[in-house]
């Protein structure tokens, strides 16, 4: 009787292992052969969402040079600028907000920070994917960053780099005394799973 139970148990374990192996192969096959189509479908859906929001009434955004304040701020979720970093061949759209949907498309602008030209801290973020901020490790002090907004063009020079914990938000201070651009992404640049560190690039207005 004991031999029969052991034999049955052994057979059951083998069946489970085989089933897991087949399932893993099936999922891998879907990723390899249909991954691009799935990504394209998601991208198309997101583009439709963003395009729909941009079809709202377009407000002219201007910067008051005396008060250093914008008039008619961009709507949340809409693109209002582009960011260019020639040293790493980067040219991306900037959206007001930092939802997952926005970060799939380009660079997000933290709604709690200032806008370019307002004279205060600007916080922007992007994924560490190959088409966004993965090449941040190649940046050097003195490299130039240009933000072309629909109300003006602003140039910044990189002055510092920091590696911080995801819980150290106080190291990205919001202040009005100096226009400081802070760009961050997840670190390591190539990672699997949840990244607990952030690579921050600091740049000052020129």
The low-pLDDT segments are 26-58
Q: If you average the pLDDT, what whole number results?
A: 81
User: Which structural class do the helices and strands define?
Assistant: alpha+beta
Number of separate strands? 10
N/C terminus separation: 84 Å
Order of helices and strands: HEEEEHEEEEEE
Superfamily at the CATH H level of the largest domain?
A: Sortase
Backbone CA Rg: 23 Å
- The CATH architecture of the largest domain can be given as Beta Barrel
Descriptors:
single chain, 206 residues, alpha+beta, Sortase, Chain: A, 2 domains, two-stranded antiparallel ribbon, 2 helices, 32% strand, elongated
Overview of this protein structure:
With 206 residues, this protein is an alpha+beta fold. It folds into two domains: 1-55; 62-205, Sortase, Chain: A. The protein is built from two helices and ten strands. It has helices spanning 2-54, 100-105, and strands at 62-64, 69-71, 79-85, 90-96, 107-109, 121-125, 144-149, 152-165, 180-187, 197-205. The protein has an eight-stranded mixed β-barrel. A two-stranded antiparallel sheet has the order 1-2. β4 (90-96), α2 and β5 form a beta-alpha-beta unit. The chain is elongated and about 85 Å long.
């Amino acid at each position: 009787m004991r031999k029969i139970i052991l034999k049955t148990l052994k057979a059951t374990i083998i069946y489970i292992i085989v089933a897991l192996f087949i399932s893993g192969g099936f999922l891998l096959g879907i990723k390899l052969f249909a991954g691009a189509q799935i990504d394209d479908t998601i991208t198309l859906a997101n583009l439709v969402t963003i395009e729909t929001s941009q079809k709202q009434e377009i407000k002219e955004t201007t910067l008051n040079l005396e008060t250093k304040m914008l008039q008619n701020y961009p709507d949340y979720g809409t693109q209002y600028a582009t960011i260019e970093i020639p040293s790493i061949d980067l040219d991306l759209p900037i959206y007001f907000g930092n939802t997952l949907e926005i970060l799939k498309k380009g660079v997000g602008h933290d709604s709690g920070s200032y806008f370019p030209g307002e004279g205060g801290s600007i916080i922007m973020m992007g994924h560490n994917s190959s088409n966004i901020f993965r090449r941040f490790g190649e940046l050097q002090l003195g490299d130039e960053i240009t933000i072309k907004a629909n109300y003006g063009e602003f140039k910044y020079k990189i002055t510092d780099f920091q590696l911080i914990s995801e819980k150290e938000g106080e190291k990205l201070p919001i202040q009005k005394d100096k226009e400081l651009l802070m760009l961050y992404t997840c670190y390591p640049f190539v990672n699997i799973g949840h990244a607990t560190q952030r690579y921050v690039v600091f740049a000052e207005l020129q």
